[in-house]
């Protein structure tokens, strides 16, 4: 009896331990944050840290690649020129001929989101242990995506008001005043859909990879990881393209 | 993992009842139901009771903790949709990044690319212009060739004329010479004729006298 109980006891203990161990190894800590206090406000430190890294990567590589531009471009310069051409192309197709001033905004959106997403998939953040929470792509946090989406909203309002003055608000009763509520609603759904699309995709991708890794540690997660890289790129492109489309939409004439 | 997600989806995780309180009633039940069946001494009973107490409490604890929702007790409330100062900080970081990238990447590289485009276009136009230049050069070459040909033909004509004149001169000279010789020969002939005529004249008188003598012997 005693022995039996003990064995059950140890078995259960082992079970608990292995389960705990699994969680320790593979656990993505969803919604866990490392908090910093700044002036009485809380901050998700892991997001701030990773965003610094992303910004450092972007600025550093840009400085190194284009500090001394050649007429016949070197490899890295060629890559950066290609990226700029790509961004210009996206802005031009969405905004139209007056795309010039918006290239920095669209380009920074695309590059920041793209590098953030790929850093989440490629950089071994998990090596660095935090006392609480864990490092991941900055776009994994709703704060980041909402910040970017709100900036996009501000940008397209600014674009419209700058182009047409107060006449911009005339678009709310186009084509008929009956659509006024829907047009107003659109201003809320745009940032909402932008932010949640990005946040959901990146979080879900990371979760799927982690769950698969915890179930089958080798080979099987690789296609999903590649799919994750693909999705990350697509999401960055979608965010930038939609932002450009919103800006273009608010700038175009509707008379 | 699934538990965590489940837990995160619930806004308020209900704390599972603490282990000590739930374990106790079970222990009492086990004491009352299981212990009387085996006949054992007090000592054994005490030993057994402590061990079973331990193991049973573990069973109770584990069964509780392993149940999906109660695992979340170990995990704090997941804050997936928690907004705080991170949002404005990221906004500020993004704007700073935008200005920095604009200064070191978008504007200079864009300007550089545009300049290069303009330069290449200008060079291309230059190339188109040189085709006109080539035509001009060709015309020039043709003109030079024509001039050279004219010069050569002129020289040729001149030489022809010169040689012809020379030839004619020599011809005329030869003719003159021949004529002079002819004249001389003719003069010689005339002279000889006159001489013979003179000789004949003197002989004629004697001859005629001889003839007359022969014909007229009687005279």
TrEMBL record, chain A:
UniProt keyword Repressor present: no
Secretion signal, residue range per the UniProt entry: none
InterPro entries in the cross-refs: ATP_syn_F0_a_bact/chloroplast (IPR045082), ATP_synth_F0_asu (IPR000568), ATP_synth_F0_asu_AS (IPR023011), F0_ATP_A_sf (IPR035908)
A GO term for molecular function: proton-transporting ATP synthase activity, rotational mechanism
Record's function text: Key component of the proton channel; it plays a direct role in the translocation of protons across the membrane.
Membrane topology: Multi-pass membrane protein
Assembly and oligomerization: F-type ATPases have 2 components, CF(1) - the catalytic core - and CF(0) - the membrane proton channel. CF(1) has five subunits: alpha(3), beta(3), gamma(1), delta(1), epsilon(1). CF(0) has four main subunits: a, b, b' and c.
Coarse class of the protein's main subcellular location: membrane
Superkingdom of the organism of origin: Eukaryota
A Pfam family matched in the record: ATP-synt_A
Protein name (Swiss-Prot/TrEMBL): ATP synthase subunit a, chloroplastic
Annotated localization: Membrane; Plastid, Chloroplast thylakoid membrane
Alphabetical keyword list: ATP synthesis, CF(0), Chloroplast, Hydrogen ion transport, Ion transport, Membrane, Plastid, Thylakoid, Transmembrane, Transmembrane helix, Transport
Gene that this polypeptide is encoded by: atpI
Organism of this sequence: Fagus engleriana
Similarity-based family: Belongs to the ATPase A chain family.
Transmembrane segment boundaries: 43-66, 102-122, 142-161, 198-220, 226-247
GO CC entries: chloroplast thylakoid membrane; plasma membrane; proton-transporting ATP synthase complex
UniProtKB/TrEMBL annotation, chain B:
GO molecular function terms noted in the UniProt entry: proton-transporting ATPase activity, rotational mechanism
UniProt record, GO biological process: proton motive force-driven ATP synthesis
Alphabetized InterPro entries for the sequence: ATP_synth_b, ATP_synth_b/b'su_bac/chlpt, ATP_synthase_B_chain
GO cellular component: proton-transporting ATP synthase complex
Bilayer topology: Single-pass membrane protein
Record's keyword terms, sorted: CF(0), Coiled coil, Hydrogen ion transport, Ion transport, Membrane, Transmembrane, Transmembrane helix, Transport
Compartment(s): Membrane
Superkingdom of the organism of origin: Eukaryota
Any coiled-coil regions, as ranges: 120-210
Pfam families, A to Z: ATP-synt_B
Record's function text: F(1)F(0) ATP synthase produces ATP from ADP in the presence of a proton or sodium gradient. F-type ATPases consist of two structural domains, F(1) containing the extramembraneous catalytic core and F(0) containing the membrane proton channel, linked together by a central stalk and a peripheral stalk. During catalysis, ATP synthesis in the catalytic domain of F(1) is coupled via a rotary mechanism of the central stalk subunits to proton translocation.
Family: Belongs to the ATPase B chain family.
Protein name: ATP synthase subunit b', chloroplastic
């Amino acid at each position: 009896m005693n022995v039996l109980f003990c064995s059950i006891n140890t078995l259960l203990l082992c079970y608990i331990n292995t389960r705990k161990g699994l969680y320790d190894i593979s656990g993505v800590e969803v919604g866990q944050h490392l908090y910093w206090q700044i002036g009485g406000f809380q901050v998700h430190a892991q997001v701030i840290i990773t965003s610094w890294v992303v910004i450092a990567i972007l600025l550093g590589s840009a400085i190194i690649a284009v500090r001394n531009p050649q007429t016949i471009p070197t490899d890295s310069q060629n890559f950066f020129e290609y990226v700029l051409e790509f961004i210009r192309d996206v802005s031009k197709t969405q905004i139209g001929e007056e795309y010039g001033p918006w290239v920095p905004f669209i380009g920074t959106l695309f590059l920041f989101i793209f590098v953030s997403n790929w850093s989440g998939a490629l950089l071994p953040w998990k090596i660095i242990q935090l006392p609480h929470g864990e490092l991941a792509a900055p776009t994994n946090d709703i704060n980041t995506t909402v910040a970017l989406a709100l900036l996009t909203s501000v940008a397209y309002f600014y674009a419209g008001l700058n182009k047409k003055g107060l006449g911009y608000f005339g678009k709310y009763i186009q084509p008929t005043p009956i659509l006024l509520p829907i047009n107003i609603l659109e201003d809320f759904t745009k940032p909402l859909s932008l932010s949640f699309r990005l946040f959901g995709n990146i979080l879900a991708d990371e979760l799927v990879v982690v769950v698969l890794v915890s179930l089958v540690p080798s080979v099987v997660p690789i296609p999903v990881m590649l799919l994750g890289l693909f999705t990350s790129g697509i999401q960055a492109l979608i965010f930038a393209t939609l932002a450009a489309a919103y800006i273009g939409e608010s700038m175009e004439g509707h008379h | 993992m699934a538990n965590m997600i489940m837990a995160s989806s619930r806004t308020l995780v209900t704390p599972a009842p603490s282990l000590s309180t739930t374990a106790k009633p079970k222990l009492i039940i086990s004491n009352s139901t299981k212990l009387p069946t085996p006949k054992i001494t007090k000592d054994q009973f005490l030993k057994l009771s402590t061990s079973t107490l331990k193991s049973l409490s573990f069973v109770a604890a584990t069964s509780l903790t392993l149940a999906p929702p109660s695992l979340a007790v170990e995990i704090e409330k997941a804050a997936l949709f928690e907004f705080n100062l991170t949002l404005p900080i990221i906004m500020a970081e993004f704007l700073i990044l935008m200005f920095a990238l604009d200064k070191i990447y978008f504007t200079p590289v864009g300007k550089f690319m545009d300049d290069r485009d303009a330069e290449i276009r200008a060079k291309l136009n230059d190339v188109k212009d040189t085709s006109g230049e080539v035509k001009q050069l060709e015309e020039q070459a043709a003109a030079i060739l024509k001039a050279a040909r004219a010069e050569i033909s002129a020289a040729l004509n001149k030489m022809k004329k010169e040689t012809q004149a020379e030839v004619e001169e020599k011809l005329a000279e030869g003719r003159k010479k021949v004529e002079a010789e002819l004249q001389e020969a003719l003069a010689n002939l005339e002279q000889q004729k006159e001489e013979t005529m003179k000789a004949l004249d003197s002989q004629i008188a004697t001859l005629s006298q001889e003839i007359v003598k022969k014909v007229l012997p009687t005279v």
